[in-house]
Amino acid sequence: MSTRGLGGWRRRPAPRGMVTIELAVGIVTATLLAAGLVTLVLLGVAQAAVAESSAQIARQIARGDEAALAVAERRSPRESTVVHRDGGVEVTVEARSFVLGIGDVPVRASAWAAYEPGVGP
Q: Does position 75 have pLDDT exceeding 80, yes or no?
């Protein structure tokens, strides 16, 4: 790069280090954005897991299938709470999911199922 000044042509100093700074800021931004998106996806997966667990447990209780109920309760998310209610059966499954920058966030899902004929309280 050259410019013409009063004394003739002279070289303009090249900007050095700007690309490095821009690249560093870009990488940090992209990393934080990716971490945030992964965290939100994991929160969605946790919500889907508790929803599926509550539906499975309610269905097995309504059917009166103790063996399948035990399997469904074992498959429910760790540190989950299962609450059985009457009037059909209502099951609420709660768990906690870590969200970057916030901490543990509770996720909860409920499902209701009518008792099958011949099964009930």
A: yes
